[in-house]
Amino acid sequence: MSYAKELRVAELAVQRATLLTKRVFHEKAKGTLSKDDASPVTIGDFGAQALIIQAIRKNFPQDEIVGEEEAATLRENKELSSKIWTLVKEARLSDATAEEELGGPIPSEEDMLSAIDAGNSAGGAKGRIWALDPIDGTKGFLRGGQYAVCLALMVDGDVKVGVLGCPNLPVDDSASLDAHSGENQTDAEGKGVLFGAVQGQGATSRPLGTGALGKSQPIHMKEVSSIADATFCESVEAAHSSHSDQSQIAQKLGITKPSVRMDSQAKYGSIARGAGDLYLRLPVKKDYQEKIWDHAAGDLIVREAGGEVTDAQGKRLDFGKGRTLKDNKGIVAAPRGVHAQVLEAVKSVLGSK
């Protein structure tokens, strides 16, 4: 299967959702709610989830969706729901044909709530299931760093299509990351990139627009001739990954450059196009399970760009186990030529604990 329609709908749906997230990003009162896993939820999260699920339901009504949010809070908090509805109904692509492809605007506030609640699939290894993270890197979003709108299609547990919308990354694929790439970011001119991939067909980037899709170009991971010169990315939050272990691994590999700390799957997109080289996310707690929506799109995009993504034991990530990667611990993403060397350093540091 070519998955051409799935890719196109996913790219347009993510692009439309970023119209809303960018608007919220610029507003001071970002409407944070507390959530049971202690990560902030924004108006943007709910709004983006509604817009994307609506597009999937219009185009692929039989498909299931694993989404991060549910609308129970909004049904109780009418004021917040109304605020989100105002943003959702105004988020339209400027190209009428593209907007029509997504099924047009959401008809009513109740339809918006029902769309949000449709992200309730339990996941698994059977059938067509979309994994959606409406705003990945919520804390980055709130503090003005990097964030991503992420969508992936899994068929029988295997990721077939992956799309990442990164409004605050530079359009220029050759712009290298530095230690400040994850902080004080904007979506000003020259920023905003849409990454896409289909299994077996390579990965692309294109400028994130407001209407029809922009021109795409293929992306590839950079060949790393000397691992000591590699740029490695990690999460900003120490609660998300072990900075101390990652620092020891970098030392073991002879990497002296400071790590690039940024939120969200923007890290996957960045290394896929050669702006960075390695991405490490090592577990802080033994019982922590990664969510599938935090990795599905990025995993495919990096692999299609010539990279390898495994857990800390060297196993491929298994997206067919439900809503979490319960059979995997940690993430190691690197160009194919050096992945084994990086993994060896990871095992050595983790094995000595």
Question: In words, what does this structure look like?
Answer:
The protein has 353 residues and is α+β, with helices and mostly antiparallel strands. The chain contains eleven helices and twelve strands. Strands 1-2-3-4-5-6-7 form a seven-stranded mixed β-sheet, with helices on both faces. Strands 9-8-10-12-11 form a five-stranded mixed β-sheet, with helices on both faces. Helix 1 packs antiparallel against helix 2, helix 2 crosses helix 4 and helix 2 crosses helix 6. The protein is globular.
Short description:
The protein is of the alpha+beta class and 353 residues long. It has 11 helices and 12 strands.
Core attributes:
five-stranded mixed sheet; alpha+beta; 19% strand; 353 residues
Oligomer state of the chains in this structure = single chain
How much is the average pLDDT?
93
- Spatial order of strands in the largest sheet: 1-2-3-4-5-6-7
**Tally of extended strands?**
12
Structural class: alpha+beta
> How much strand content do the residues show?
15-25%
Give the helix level as a range of percent.
25-40%
Which overall shape is indicated by the principal axes computed on the Cα atoms? globular
Largest pleated sheet: 7 strands, mixed
Number of contiguous helices: 11
Q: Unreliable runs, pLDDT <50, ≥5 residues?
A: none
Rg value:
19 Å
Cα end-to-end separation: 45 Å
Order of helices and strands: HHEHHHHEHEEEEEEHEHEHEEH
